[in-house]
Amino acid sequence: MTSQAPIQKPEQRSLDAVIVGAGFGGLCTAIKLREAGIENFVILEKFGEVGGTWRDNTYPGAACDVQSHLYSFSFAGKPDWNYRYGGQQEIRDYIENTTDEYGIRPFIRFNQEVNGAHFDEQRGVWTLTTENGDVYTTQHFVLATGPLHEPSYPNIPGLDRFQGKVFHSARWDHDYDLTDKNVVSIGTGASAIQYVPEVARQAKKLHVMQRTPAWIIPRDTRAYPAIEKRIFRRLPLLRKLHRARLYWTNESRVWPVFHPSLAKGLQQLTKLFIRHQVNDKETARKLTPSYTMGCKRILISNDYYPAFNRDNVELHTSGIAEIRENSVVTKDGQELPADCIILGTGFVVDPRQYMRGFEVTGVNGHRLQDDWADASRAYMGITVPNYPNFYLLVGPNTGLGHNSIIFMIECQVHYIMECLKLLRQKNADYIDTRQQALDEFDEEVQNNIEGTVWTSGCQSWYQQEDGRNVALWPFSTWKYWLRTRRVDTSKHRFVQCPATVNAEAENA
Ligand code: N01
Fold first, then answer.
1. What is the DSSP letter of 383?
2. What's the average model confidence in pLDDT over 283-296?
3. 504: pLDDT confidence band, cut at 50, 70 and 90?
4. CA-closest residue to ligand 1 atom 21
5. Which of 95, 141, 161, 199 has its CA 20 to 30 A from that of 24?
6. In the prediction, which pLDDT does 354 show?
């Protein structure tokens, strides 16, 4: 062999990358891999279609609370969004069309639920196994499942005895006709406040079980007229300016997060909105939160509060004592007849829980479940020490309450592509983040969370049970953009695995 010959790896890797999940994150990664000339990858998707949360959440009234021109890829603008806030079907269509437009569908293996991933440091490869027994080996492993995919089912006494229909908001049963039914809806988060007005229009009686009210502000929605769509199509620069304006408007909403006194001011205005929208004073009082606005996610709706002016809608706040065969019993002693119970009870958002059936092992026998035993942590929310070439999308502390998560996903995918570039430049097999880098990053993030509105005294899915916020990015999003432009090489190790070192020695 001459020194010019390509280096033969002793073991061929089957794939350059495996992406788990075909939602926005998986799709973005796939598009950017192809742009970089990498075609030897697959996306493993648990279900039979793309779309992630926008495939699963089909409940009536489902829509995004981030403006469509911003809740879409910067590189795949859509000039003809129908509404400022896209509905579920329009967003799902966007994802499906983008998948086809960028030729991603042939790379997707549907109905492949991954249940394990193991890193072999000798060969520098990940081996992923699936529920149907398939095995994939790959150099890079991107986990793009996101935190909002596993429905959270409440542990309410008697729920399993209920004889009527039960379904979760993310598993809506469209074959079940709610017309003239007695319906009990549990939860008053982002999903419930969207379907409650729709269900109220159909059901004979709707009982809304509220544990904690949400702060809900008006939805500044509007339809884009045909002329505006034409302008956006012909003059993409104007569409981009529109997108930029939406981005900066949303970004300004980060201020109340850091200055809870500002949030308290906004809260006074929202109280007026509630009083204006709800006829009954006592109901309005019960719908008004007692925690500082922004501590839990701020919701937007114009038709949730008015739903309580209907004769067939009743708000219950005492809590649920038990569920019987055909009724729900409240803690203040009312027995509510029920044909159907809708669980608007959110998602299992803690990676330690939603990854419990998914064993991930890194170098030196590290198990992600052990390393995350007290909390999930990732450098920039993307990489984890001892798990080389493993990347998370919308990982710990990179969620948002005030702007578009697609912006964060694009930053993360850019960062991953930078890692891949660096590995090639350094002729290394894997990149492994230094523990110190993660510790410092984590400390910075957690310190910045202190004193924000999120720590002002409420319980939300942003926190794990000990109160630690594991979900949100506590800075402006443009700072995240800046910090993910380049990979700081001092924070990582670039490693040639023994097999490559030996092969190079033989080739020399
Ligand atoms: O879930 P949630 P979601 N007994 O966790 C209550 C995104 N999203 O599906 O507040 C009684 O917010 C719980 O009560 P409490 C968005 O990021 C976006 O609505 O914990 N009640 C709460 O009221 C969002 O934040 C969009 O006291 C129980 C509700 O159930 C995230 O998804 C639309 C209970 C759960 O609310 C999750 O939203 C939809 C129990 N045992 C979703 N357990 C848009 O873009 C829970 N609850 C518009």
1. B
2. 96
3. confident
4. 187
5. 199
6. 85
Structure tokens that stand for 80 in this block: 């003809």
Q: What pLDDT is recorded for position 8? A: 41
Residue type, 72: S
Q: Which of 191, 409, 465 to mutate to test the pocket of ligand 1 (most atoms within 8 A of CB)?
A: 191
Residue nearest to atom 43 of ligand 1 (CA): 345
Return the pLDDT at 287.
Answer: 98
Tell me how far the alpha carbon of residue 11 lies from the centroid of ligand 1, in angstroms.
Answer: 47
- 48/123 same-domain check: yes
- Looking up residue 428, the CATH number of its domain turns out to be 3.50.50.60
* Domain boundary residue, one of 343, 378, 399: 343
Q: 430 pLDDT band (50/70/90 cuts)?
A: very high
DSSP helix/strand/coil, 31: helix
Number of folded domains that form the chain: 2
Residue 118, φ and ψ in degrees, nearest 5: -130, 130
Both 264 and 370 in one domain: the answer is no
**Which domain, by its residues, includes 192?**
159-214+253-343
Tell me the percentage of the chain whose pLDDT exceeds 70.
97
Q: Give helix then strand counts, H and E, for the chain.
A: 16, 20
Which residues line the pocket of ligand 1, CB cutoff 6 A?
63-65, 148, 154, 156, 169, 186-192, 211-212, 297, 344-347, 461
pLDDT for position 229: 98
Give the pLDDT mean for 417-426.
97
Atom of ligand 1 nearest to the CA of 57: 39
What is the Å distance from ligand 1's center to 197 Cα? 16
Question: CB count, 10 Å around CB of 268?
Answer: 9
Q: Which pLDDT belongs to residue 359?
A: 94
> Which residues, 6 or more positions from 455, have their beta carbon under 8 angstroms from its beta carbon?
449, 467, 469
Which one of 343, 362, 378 terminates a domain? Answer: 343
Give residue 6's pLDDT: 44
Mean pLDDT of 325-348: 97
Residue 58 lies in a domain: yes
Ligand 1 centre and the CA of 152: distance in Å?
Answer: 9
Question: Measured in angstroms, how far is the CA atom of residue 149 from the centroid of ligand 1?
Answer: 13
Phi–psi pair at 49, nearest 5 degrees: -150, 160
Please give the number of the atom of ligand 1 that sits closest to the Cα of 64: 45
At 18, which helix (H) or strand (E)? strand 15-20
